[in-house]
Specification:
mainly alpha, two-stranded antiparallel sheet
Length: 258
């Protein structure tokens, strides 16, 4: 697939923001297969922070000094995950089935996974709120809730990467993928929300994947993402894990498609 250059004044891609710009951006053929790499990158960030939280909360002193920040981060992640799955259920997978009815059985498996994961998310949110309020036993309850979430979430993420995304690429075009992303993952959010998500995604990411993420955004908003919005978010993320082995944990490997 040969890349083409599009000059578009209002491109906003991949859960990041690219407001009106006079720049151009290299993207793949809009009529070619959907480029779904960002899905694996999102999943990698989720795996990374679940592992970071597990490592960080094993240090009692750290829990006491970072308790509120950790609880807020967990709640932010659960909100992100909830909306991530909602955007797939409401926007992406109905579009995939419409274009390729043969995908319906696997799409139903994805939806069933989401129905199993949602109660686990709610349990984590409740435990995180208790932990934030420093209720007795809340640290242990939060670790147990996150462990249960990992049991149902991680196999789903791998199945989605190995089985579902190759079908998505064969079923919809790159233009259809980006239209879904714009409508459900970008347009409803503020620049600050998107800036936090973007910097969260590239935190600890390998060079190749990081390059893919940042070059989904045109030059001017890319500069804002990397050099303006990143200042606060990099500081917040670094402070969150400071003093624990979690600080050195990178984004986790993305499983290869089947």
């Amino acid at each position: 697939m040969s890349p083409i250059v599009l000059a578009d004044p209002d491109l906003r891609f991949a859960g990041l923001v690219a407001h009106r710009s006079t720049g151009v951006v290299m993207i793949t053929d809009p009529d070619g297969p959907a480029d779904t790499r960002i899905m694996g990158i999102v999943h990698s960030a989720l795996r990374r922070d679940l592992l970071r939280i597990e490592v960080a909360t094993s240090t009692k002193t750290w829990q006491e000094t970072h308790r509120v920040a950790l609880a807020d981060h967990v709640l932010w992640m659960m909100d992100f995950l909830h909306h991530h799955h909602e955007s797939e259920d409401r926007g992406l997978y109905p579009r995939v089935v419409q274009c390729n009815p043969d995908t319906a059985p696997l799409v139903e498996r994805m939806n069933a996974d989401h129905r199993t994961i949602e109660p686990a998310i709610a349990t984590v949110e409740e435990a995180a709120r208790d932990f934030r309020a420093d209720r007795p036993g809340s640290g242990e309850a939060l670790r147990a809730a996150l462990s249960r979430l990992s049991e149902v979430l991680l196999p789903h993420l791998e199945r989605e990467e190995r089985e579902m995304m190759p079908l998505v690429s064969r079923s919809i075009t790159d233009a259809q993928w980006r239209a879904w992303d714009e409508e459900f993952n970008i347009e409803p959010k503020s620049m600050q929300q998107l800036g936090k998500e973007g910097n969260w995604l590239i935190d600890g990411l390998d060079d190749s994947s990081r390059d893919h993420v940042v070059h989904l955004v045109p030059p001017v908003p890319r500069f804002v993402l990397l050099h303006v919005l990143s200042i606060r978010h990099r500081h917040d993320f670094a402070a969150l894990w400071k003093g624990t082995d979690a600080a050195s944990i990178p984004s986790q490997p993305i499983p290869k498609a089947a």
